[in-house]
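Internal tracking record. Fields below are filled automatically when a chain is submitted to the structure queue. Please do not edit lines marked as system-generated. If the sequence contains nonstandard residues, flag them in the REMARKS field before resubmitting.
Queue: standard
Priority: normal
Entity type: single polypeptide chain
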Amino acid sequence: MANDVTRYNDRSGRRDLSLFDDFFDSMLGAWDNYSQRIPAVDVEESADKYIIKAEMPGWSEKDVKITVDKHVLHISGEVNENEKEEDGKKYLIRERRHTAFERSFSLPDGLDENAISADFQNGILTITLPKTPEEQPKRIEVKIGK
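SYSTEM-GENERATED OUTPUT FOLLOWS
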């Protein structure tokens, strides 16, 4: 039919897209998935702790929730930007309206889960996971009986 409407990136049942269409499809295709992205993280290890750093520009500490359950660290967050459209202002792209994520990390043995701490500064969430002191073998002194 001449009046059929298909999404621009729906390739099912259509002829191959031209090079021009492919270019714009790849450039514009991620716009609707932008709000589903999760923060990039770095995980560091030292002798006494692990550190997880997550990039979260534009977020604040009240938007982030961190929990530990059954040796799994859960980081989640949600931001809902409800700016009203003013007279004469028209949004062409609205990516900041609502963003949510959830990320989980399995924790290794040997962590002091009660001492986990978090800090949020300049758009970087830093979670410190201290290790428990390794148990040293206990030396038992043998005494000669009297």
